[in-house]
## 1
Amino acid sequence: MIRIGIVGLGFMGYTHFTASAKLRGGKITAIASRDPKKRAGDWTGLKGNFGPPAGKVDLSKVTAHETIDELIADPNVDLVDICLPTGMHESVALKAAAAGKHVFVEKPIAPDLAAADRMVKACEEAGVLLMVGHVLPFFPEFRYLCEATEKKKYGKLRAAHFARVICPPNWREGEDDFVALGGWGADLHIHDTHFISLLCGVPKKVFSRGLLREGLIEHVQSEYVWEDGGPNGNPPVGSVAGGIAARGHDFRHGFEAHFEKATILFSAANMGGEFAEDRPLTVVSQGGQVREPSLKGGEEWFSPFAAELQAAVKGVKEHKAPRTLSGALARDALKVVAAETKSVKAGGKLTTV
């Protein structure tokens, strides 16, 4: 049984705790919080940009620590699950690694590349796993696209485009701390640079145009270049992401991917507080057939996170991080964001990742 300790009891910590009920071969054995109410199981008021608000939880079989150091020292913790603000990821990951504990950290790995490099190096030297929770590949629609690409179900990928756009959020206290989050590049767009790198390999170069605030991405439109170095060659792949949409355009994401034998589309959005899939996962064959395939995965709001945690548990059991959660790949996704930022500053100049 892989024993997991959660540090950071905001909405994402609550999400991980709730998702853990579905785990096979793993369980939450400890949590850490300075808040005595949370240590007593009263998580009322926690809320995020998806799923229901939290309430009271049963901690009768969980050790509630007051400090992170206490949890890391707990002999009944094998894997430290870090759900803290991004700027705290590095310090806690380094402490956990020094204590010989495996590390699972919510995305992004860190707000800047230097911190990400130190985290990867520290975990490698300590001989522990560093896994980063980029949950997108565990959503059924994105999993379908990933598997179709890997297995060449519809032939070779010829071109693709991804979108992830929000209005400036106000759902979490501190969310407007744009710099601490690493801008919308590290906090939002990182989903797509990670998924694209998982799908096609890490790009070699990028050219981007966009808007910067305090030197960080506020909105970006990018095209990626592999120079025939990726598993799919060098297809035209692009993305758009940012946090400048009008209030009421709360969230939109999706993709359009063209293969030799079919086109795969998906689009979903939260507009005016109402969420809808305006284009469910759809496959259009070259012969004109349009269908919506059945998708793998649970229907609960936390199902992708349960699948993600299950992959982390499997990784610890096998002492090998799955590629979807690879710390090195998460660091490389941040490298792509850094190159995009540099390209925007240079007026769209082709920039090496």
## 2
Amino acid sequence: MKTHTIEVQKFKAAGNAHGLIMLKMDALVAPKANVEGIEPSSILSMTEANARVLMSLLKAQIAELDTKKPKSRHGRHG
């Protein structure tokens, strides 16, 4: 598996299609060396401001996906 360090510079847009949320962004992407004995994984980092933008974009896209789901005709269960 290839691992990377990804640093978000700026979120530009968000959209969704076929159940996937897609984000357009500027980011610095660099290969990350694996450390022996530690499970390999990529790292995504961003500023607090970018994290807040990401949260807002995700909330909007999830709300849009929810409006496309068919409503239950049987009422609430539980």
## 3
Amino acid sequence: MTNDPRKPKWAQRAAGADEASGAAPPYRKRRRWLAPLLILVAVAAVAAYLVLGREDALTGADPETAAPAEPAEAREVVMQVLSTELHEVEAGELRETTRITGSLDPANKLEIPAEVAGRVDEVTLQPGDPVEQGQVLVRIDIETLTNQLEQQRASAEATRAQLELAQSEYERTQSLVNRGVASVSTLDSQAAQVRQLEANLAVQERQVANAEQSLEKATITAPFAGTVSERAVDPGTYVSPGTPLMTIVDLSSLTLEGVVPVIYAPRIRVGQTGEVSVDGLGDQVFTGTVDRVSPVAKAGTRMLPIYATVENSNSTLRGGMFASGVLILDAAEDAIGIPVAALREDDEGQYVLKVEGDQVVRQPVEVARTWDGGQVYQVTSGLAAGDVIVASALERLDPGTTITVIGN
């Protein structure tokens, strides 16, 4: 390098020394560290911006306008409660029930048999026809039975005439014997004849009575009002005593032959009522009353048969329908019940969470007993009709908590 006459000598010597050693000038060494430093500063600035922008996106706040966050202890806890998790207290009937299932059969059902032998002359009704009490159903060989009755009556009348004659002769002979004109043997013979005729007349009078009964039984009438459910014979059929003729049923009331678990036997009494629903009739509910209780459970089932009468004044029900329902074992009128999950307990005793405004408060209660198979508690004090309580076991909901109800 040519010396610059404008530089001082010491500068020229330093430059010459640098050129001789091949080292870079000092100012170039400082510029080599400046570029990495600027890159690090830029990277840090970008990272800070991204972090701050992410927090603002999560909180939804504008970094320039967002207010400083409140301290954690200053925030008010508000819990959301579904309307289905609340229960409005009301007074009503509380029940203890058990399920009952079974089939319905007509309370009055009669299969009418023939009581006399003969040919069927007339059948007046078909299955499904209504029938009134005393209405004629079947007639059996009326003409033949009438002729038999007339013959029996004629025979009895002839025997009665013979008896009257024999009695008159006996009285005359007795008068002659008393005067010594007739023998005693003749009197004894006539007395025996009288007794024989009296016996014959008694038999014939019984035959007349039987013939009258047969003629009466040849006309079959309905013993009660109802409906024909089955017809077993047609005109011209020959029947003998005991042959089924027709079946009639009374559907004004039916008998539910159901079963209940035998463990409820001590609590079942005649006169208890139940609510019965029947397959195919939707939500219709019928009332049944227990009439009879079997003294013995069915073998191998531990189920106790009971018999309840179900009223059917509108003839909606039919025999053979399957019914199910509940038998009311015990009941309490005008009582307050709460769901089991609503009751809580702490060191101070039993309580519920009662809604007052937008908060829940601790409300002490007294419980008498459970109903409906342990699903309902009967509360005797602490609550009144119209109070609203929390009915679900919400573990994180404590007395004094502010709530908001959703799903109204």
## 4
Amino acid sequence: MNLEKLVRPNILAMKAYSSARDEFEVNNEVVLLDANENPFASDWNRYPDPYQRELKKAIAELKDINVENIFLGNGSDEAIDLIFRIFCEPGKDNIIVTDPTYGMYEVSAAIQNIEVKKVPLTKAFELESDKVLSAVNENTKLIFLCNPNNPTANLLDEKQIKYVVENFEGIVILDEAYIDFTDMESSIQWLNEYPNLIVLQTFSKAWGMAGMRLGMAFSNPGIIQLFNKVKAPYNLSILTQNKALELIKNNKEKVKSNLQVLVQERAKLIEALNKFSMVEHIYPTSTNFILVRFTNHSRVFKTLVEAGLIVRDRSKALNCGNCLRITVGTPNESELLIDVLSKI
């Protein structure tokens, strides 16, 4: 892969901003008079580590990967936005997404004035790698694949994914936001083999940190350096870094336990939903949500909202007519959902 050929020329040429904390690592033995901070001590009067070194060490151990392969952002959405800024020339380049998929790829592209080419998944929401690659032209820089896919909840075929990565000369982004709810290994293990691969993950789902906004991008060191070059100097607050580090060190067993509960609850919810005649189809799921097609989804949706139960209407997504996306909640929340549905 010729990385310089893929990166926007202005990004290659620019000089990154050097913050005060870029130059020296902070410890208790130095007096900090370089960054115009308030000197009166508190837990947050100093700027945070711009490269989140301690947090990355913990994540590197958790994911069995080198620190040099990790970028941390304000949710995965920051990483997605930076990918466009690094690789795509506004008004010229294009990207490919599958359809249906996570909507922020298209939104981020629109913000940067990047054309989006949509390649439909099959009616069973399967990936067809040859159709994806046939949509590529000389200005195609990025291909986004979400696995497991959102909103369809299914796993994409590994062979189909690898075929796209191996035969595309641009960057493939594999979004694994829901990987923790599956039994499959992350494609992080492919990074040494595929220098054009970026893997996205998040602490928002399985780890229960959605309110903290902590996303991860994994790739080869050259691409990670570009992320660090383009990102805001202090993109993760000291509060986020410290709390995330605490939770990663102390909450591994609780996360595992909660995952087991959610997977069990997912199975119970599917079993209960299958008993309703108004449920036409429940799609296979490898996530913490279920895509369900109803005979009259609008009536179901309205009834749930009136009962204070909020689900996601996905009926306008391609091949998702009459479908609602239902997140797996606590056992009590699932019971309440089934109770309301039983009265329709």
